[in-house]
Amino acid sequence: MPQVDLTELTRTELEAALAAEGLERYRARQVFQWVYRRGVAEFAAMTDLPSAQREALAARFRITTLPVAKRDVSEDGTEKFLLTLQDGRQVESVFIPRTPHDTFCVSTQVGCAMGCAFCLTATMGLVRNLTPGEIVGQVRVLAGALGLRDSRFNIVFMGMGEPLHNYDATMAAVRILADDHGFAVHPRRITVSTVGLVPAIERLAAEDVMPRLAVSLHAPTDEQRAALVPVNRKYPIAEIIEACRRFPPARRGRITFEYVLLAGVNDSPADARKLAALLQGLHVKVNLIPLNPAAGIPFERPSDERIDTFGRTLAERGVTVMVRKSRGRDIRAACGQLAVEGLKKSSAQLLAEKLGSGTISR
Ligand code: SAH
């Protein structure tokens, strides 16, 4: 198999790789159009390249496409895809139609190391980081399967994993997705959601290609937050708010604060008042996410009335607030419900494969 996986490269990196092979740099643009806009995964089909070049490319590069292991369709049109990576591990990605735009929700890690108390992915622990090609590949495969390659869509990095804990791959993926010759998704249509890793937020603030930022806050005090989001002990609320204040306002658009509502834990009117006070003077919006329950998650979703009161308490204090409707709950595709089932079994299979006796179905 050719050595270099072309899907791992930004266009600038591909240009350099082509130059190193004695090929013209500008061919990278053509290749990007074929791979991302037209969904072509074979050099032979790239008919605007001279045939000698197609052969040269095929000898040096491969184009990986992640096979779909499972596809579930929800009553509300949300679709959950289980994709198999080259090492046999799997990730979930979700398509959410018309919110009002079509949205792809992608994973950045297999599992997650952050350990948030109400999140199902957290129960897997961190298995490994995804590569840029595996992150972008989710969009490539879903857009292809859904016939949406040429349309406009939003991308949210809100699937499995903590994007800023896999910073370089996440940013390379953002660059590939935003590339004018590829999907050309405007960076403002890409949202990176973070648990609040302050140094990484600061790094992001200096990027030339900048996605929108969403921060998972979930509580108005450090005491409450540390019980839900362990990493709060390292990066407390005040530091997160400061980092958000310093985030360049002209380019970032409004920052979103996500707040998962847990019955009796962080959903009281007093909590809402504290949250409003905390956000005073910040140009942000709050996304309230009523908990999506899952087996083994020791919390409950508050009543609609309680959710409503919380939202109104914020709104009365001038905070822009939205209650996120959960989509795809019947197929367990809603926020925080992604986790690969049967992971233990597949690790055993992986081990068997390593030992040379395995049968792995791909
Ligand atoms: N690691 C990133 C992306 C996580 S998923 C982050 O923390 O932001 C996106 C959102 O779903 C996060 O705000 C996360 O806290 C939330 N979430 C996790 N589990 C949930 C659950 N069971 N119900 C509702 N939202 C949940």
Characterization of the model:
It is a single chain. The chain is an alpha/beta fold. It has twelve helices and 14 strands. It has helices spanning 11-20, 27-37, 51-60, 132-146, 167-178, 198-204, 222-228, 237-246, 249-252, 269-278, 304-316, 343-354, and strands spanning 4-5, 61-62, 68-73, 79-84, 90-96, 103-105, 109-111, 126-129, 154-157, 190-194, 212-216, 255-261, 284-290, 320-323. The strands form three sheets. A ten-stranded mixed β-sheet has the order 3-4-5-6-9-10-11-12-13-14, covered by helices on one side. The chain has a two-stranded parallel sheet with strand order 1-2. A two-stranded antiparallel sheet has the order 7-8. Strand 13, helix 11 and strand 14 (320-323) form a beta-alpha-beta unit. Helix 1 (11-20) packs across helix 2, helix 4 crosses helix 5 and helix 6 (198-204) packs parallel to helix 8 (237-246). It is elongated. It starts with a strand and ends in an 8-residue tail after the last helix. The model is unreliable at 344-362 (pLDDT under 50). Bound molecules: S-adenosyl-L-homocysteine.
